[in-house]
Specification:
Layout: H1 3-10, E1 15-17, E2 23-25, E3 29-34, E4 40-44, E5 49-52, H2 54-65
Antiparallel strand pairs: 1-2, 3-4, 4-5
Length: 72
């Protein structure tokens, strides 16, 4: 499957695109750190970390402020 196809399936389960290559679960985020280049580093409860690229930061922030509710 293509990543955008997987993303469509997972959206109702609080997953969201973080970059061209990463989809993450919003319910498993432990904390964020701001990077010098405008990206966000996301730390998950599992100990893994990923980066939210600048083009996705606003979308993720909006989704988190809405409490994960989807308007799609």
């Amino acid at each position: 499957m293509k990543l955008y196809e997987i993303e469509e399936i997972l959206i109702p389960h609080y997953f969201m695109r973080f970059s061209k290559f990463v989809i993450g679960n919003l319910n498993h985020i432990q904390r964020f750190e701001l990077s010098f280049n405008g990206n966000l580093c996301v730390y998950f409860h599992s100990g893994n970390k990923e980066y939210i690229t600048r083009s996705y930061v606003a979308k993720v922030k909006e989704k988190l402020l809405m409490g994960g509710e989807s308007n799609d």
